[in-house]
């Protein structure tokens, strides 16, 4: 699914096309996403200008004078800029018409969602309990160490908990744990402060590098112009089960933790 770097890549890509543009129409081909798209959304958005596009965790926030549009890409969703005369294809569900171009929401699995709020979007029920942004100053090793004190579950599940830190998904959790030399099954409360400082640093590093590289292409993700990201070429452990570790040469292993495949090197991570 699109993770934080892919969502941030999308935000950067579409911002220059949509900021300052007026929404002249809304065309809904399929309302039944993860939650049904409101029948009132077109009326609320029509003739509204998009002031800015921001991101909170894996959510995109479109600001207008009347309120905010909150978009989640789900497991396979994408937002793409297309010509105004480009016909809708299978799995194209919503068009935001912006004069001579369209911002098109595409989602084969329909786990994405589109919401509207007139209030502070950060207080929306989907966002208000999220932890700090992983690339912010509020996120660091001492913060992780303090939150982990009473947690006996795996460290991988701990850093993937959006109430602990917002937006660290399966791919980048696996990569960051590898960079910091921590086994994904190690109990969160059995890790020293110094190792959490390394882990926080690794999370920031791997996310920043993925954003700079344009996001990871795995299965369905495409950037706003239809071109794939390419950070997947640099992954150390994720989806590399049985292949040689880039550091020690031992085979990468995979184990299911919390219903998610976890990739690691048993020699380099402990």
Describe this structure in words.
- By secondary structure, this protein is an alpha+beta fold.
- The protein folds into two domains: 120 residues, MutM-like, N-terminal (N-terminal domain of MutM-like DNA repair proteins); 124 residues, Helicase, Ruva Protein, domain 3, CATH 1.10.8.50.
- Helix content is 24%, strand content 20%.
- The strands form three sheets. Strands 1-6-7-5 form a four-stranded antiparallel β-sheet.
Characteristic terms for this protein:
270 residues; alpha+beta; N-terminal domain of MutM-like DNA repair proteins; Helicase, Ruva Protein, domain 3; 2 domains; 4-stranded antiparallel beta sheet
Number of strands: 10
**Strand portion:** 15-25%
Mean pLDDT: 93
Biggest sheet strand line-up: 1-6-7-5
Q: What would you say the CATH architecture of the largest domain is?
A: Orthogonal Bundle
Number of self-contained structural domains: 2
Shape: elongated
- State Rg: 20 Å
Which structural class fits the helix and strand makeup? Answer: alpha+beta
How can the largest sheet be summarized? 4 strands, antiparallel
Distance between the termini: 28 Å
Report the CATH topology name of the largest domain: Helicase, Ruva Protein, domain 3
Q: Count of DSSP helices? A: 6
Low-confidence stretches: none
From N to C, what is the helix and strand string?
A: HEHEEEEEEEHHHHEE
Helix content: 10-25%
CATH class of the largest domain: Mainly Alpha
